[in-house]
Amino acid sequence: xxxxxxxxxxFLFLVGCNxxxxxxxxxxxxxxxxxxxxxxxxxxVQSVDVKGGExxxxxxxxxxxxxxxxxxxxxxxxxxxxxxxxxxxxxxLILISDTLEKDDLEEILSxxxxxxxxxxxxxxxxxxxxxxxxNDSASSGLGLISVIEQNAVSAGFGGHTALFxxxxxxxxxxxxxVTYFSSGEEIGIEGLYYYxxxxxxxxxxxxxxxxxxxxxxxxxxx
Amino acid sequence: xxxxxxxxxxxxxASVAVGDFVLRISFSNSxxxxxxxxxxxxxxxxxxxxxxxxxxxxxKKKSFKYKPLCSGIIMLSSAVPLVWTSLSSASNLSRYxxxxxxxxxxxxxxxxxxxxxxxxxxxxxxxxTLKLGLVLFPIIAIFVLLMFALSVxxxxxxxxxxxxxxxxxxxxxxxxxxxxxxxxxFIPSLILGNTAKKRHFAIAFAIASSIIIVCFLxxxxxxxxxxxxxxxxxxxxxxxxxxxxxxxxxxxxxxxAVCFFTSxxxxxxxLLCAIELVKRALGSIxxxxxxxxx
Amino acid sequence: MNQDYGRFSAVxxxxxxxxxxxxxxxxxxxxxxxxxxxxxxxxxxxxxxxxNVSMINESVVRPLIMSKDSLRDRPVAEWVGYExxxxxxxxxxEKVEDTVNSxxxxxxxxxxxxxxxxxxxxxxxxxxxxxxxxxxxxVIQGSREGFDEAAMFNLSMIRRRLLTPDFCAELTRIGRxxxxxxxxCYLKSLVNRNTLRELKKRLSKINIDSVLxxxxxxxxxxxxxxxxFKTIGSTERPDVVAARLLEGRIALxxxxxPVVITLPYLFSENFQSDEDYFINYKLASAGxxxxxxxxxxxxxxxxxxxxxxxxHFEFLPTAFALTVSVSRSGVPFSTLAExxxxxVIFEILRETAIRMPQSVGxxxxxxxxxxxxxxxxxxxxxxxxxxxxxxxxxxCGLMVxxxxxxxxxxxxxxxxxxxxxxxxxxxxxxxxxxxxxxxxKSFGIDATQSLNxxxxxxxxxxxxxxxxxxxxxxxxxxxNDIIRKK
Lengths: 222, 294, 486
Description:
Chain B is globular and about 60 Å long. Chain B has one domain. Chain B is an all-alpha fold. Chain B has helices at residues 6-18, 21-24, 31-62, 68-101, 107-122, 126-150, 168-183, 186-192, 198-230, 234-239, 252-287. At the B-C interface, helix 5, helix 6 and helix 11 of B face helix 14 of C.
């Protein structure tokens, strides 16, 4: 083989990449949620229990909880409980409780950049995140996401759902509203949770949510 | 059969003109200023390309004779910005590779590997590089348009309408960044386009301008000016919102291909032209042949 | 071994001894002394098995013995050769070397008393395989003829398709000991003279002992021996050779091998199938596009899979990512190692399938499939998605048999690049591969010359095969007569 061909190949191998990882060494998070109780912040990560089998054709999920005094520490605590590397690259849903502060939200948004969370990941709000995630038995958090999407069609309203929309609103200091899950036994949507200047302000009921969606042109249903 | 076919020329020059713009694109807080800056740079590049070609044709017709030493110096000084452009493009690509594509590598080694491949290309016959441009450019164009089309669902016209106040500083910043990208393709176009006509020059730069504008709008309409100005690689982030069905849930791979091909072509072509100019310059200076001919 | 044996003398016995000395120890040389026309003596030499014995009896022996003619005022050899023998082709020569070469090729030598001129008579009659369809170039529609090992017979098959005096076959011999006959065939009005000149120059430089197959010549004359791409075509079909000659190419018909060499060779020919031109052009186009796509899949799929699962896991859809994650749990090898192992096993199976006897073929295929497929996955030695990826890549590679070598090396090269450096490595190696393809030359002609002047006309027989009505121009291998259809 000619040296002129070998040289580019040799140089390529000089790059010496060390970032290899195996898929089964990663804990794939389908949904992640954050909740504040006083000075304590809890982080919940949901993943599909691939070994647990399926119920009614839907894979089982399991939830791991971690606690700390900040978002970062809560996530670190969660990581320490896992035997695998935490991977948020497949996270499709971020749940925020109405008890989180503006600083917490900012921290979540910057953390999403560090962990390469997709900018299309959906954001929703809920009161009792642990209960909601444990009740969600569909794989990859798609159960909750499909609820959000179906609701947008059936109920006639939709909020700012994508992560990048929330980021933009935060930067501009604009208001935004995210889908709010009810805290009952069954999974359902209660309305939209309205945030002003990054601070959770009010829960809008169905009629108010529909009006808000139309006003902000957020309804993407039929 | 001419070695430089015009379609190949257009493809290659358009790729070089786009170059590493997709990596360097940056925003200010005023989207209107950014848009004005980019559009001005695009328009000026098309006009300047046509004017340069006209000037060159005039020079050929009048058969200007330079002294060999003088022509050698002109060619050497033309080679310097080409080398600089090539190194700068390789550096941008290697930084992008380190920060986004493959975070565990080192940018220095990416830089060296890209340069080695570019040198390999530069020492091939120019025919090979022209064909490489012809093969890669349609892929680049298709991917850019595809990613634009697939991220339409996330776009919001409110980010560019209504118009915000023009800021001269922002206009100049965006204009200069776009102009650097586009104008860096002038010298390669003059060297490689000896059989091309003025309209081919105009078409090449017009196509490059269109792609640049599409990339700009893709980012601006999804994120708006404020968010875009905080992101390091805004176009890269904008494209990651696109998806196509369940299989292609993230289109970043296509973006990596676009970034790699455009930056690499720019690096390789600029090096190729620089080497050619240096060869001719040395011929002029040491062998007293007037080689200042394009 | 071309040796100068000198010339014949007028004494029959001396000439007989000369021939016997040259072929001393050779048990298949036959000698038949003959007397004819009341006093004239002669001697026949031929190689048993190389000649048609009944032709010798009917064309040479019978006319000589039955003849009652008498020598007129002309040399003996001329009288016998032109007036007595019933042969279609005779050569009169005084050079011993010429007669030796002729005898070695199946001619019969007739020596005459009182004449230093010998007569060689064309009595070739060795047995050949006969016309059969080439194993590796089967078609559903089209001619089923294939070459065999006799160059003259192969030439006749080509000539039957090119009924024009423009067709030319120049003879040359290559190989010091084998003196293998090679015919350089071309159409005089279409051939590229530069290519022809270059070919003759390269052939004259071959200084090898033997040429037993066309591959010996191929490796001597190709542009770059280190390239994994074909730069010289080969075929066993006479219709393909005729078609290539009509495009201005040159064919080398080598004796004792059914494989005919054609050059120059364009890269797009790797994706052509022999029956592309015999079936509906839309179907042919679809097949061609599929072959190009399969080639891309063959070299890319394993690399992309390894890159995505090792470095860019986020690009995989979540459901598929979970499947991969589950399937890989318990597998002891890394993704790259797994892929390399499975690819090597696939190549071993493929080679074995070609070489093994047909009687055990089926059983072995089942065992191979069961062992590798079922058992290895269940034992968690390999994962099921990887098996599918490697199988897909392997099958796609079989769609382009002419690029077997390129697929083999490119697949591993790109795989290692992607396995160590993810998508960056994949893109880097693809660009490098593309550059290597674009710089291929075949006898001074760009192998990717359709990209030199890209237009619909130049691509009409590259990515697709348009209808014959629209194929107006030949590929621009030569500049003489580029218009095919008026």
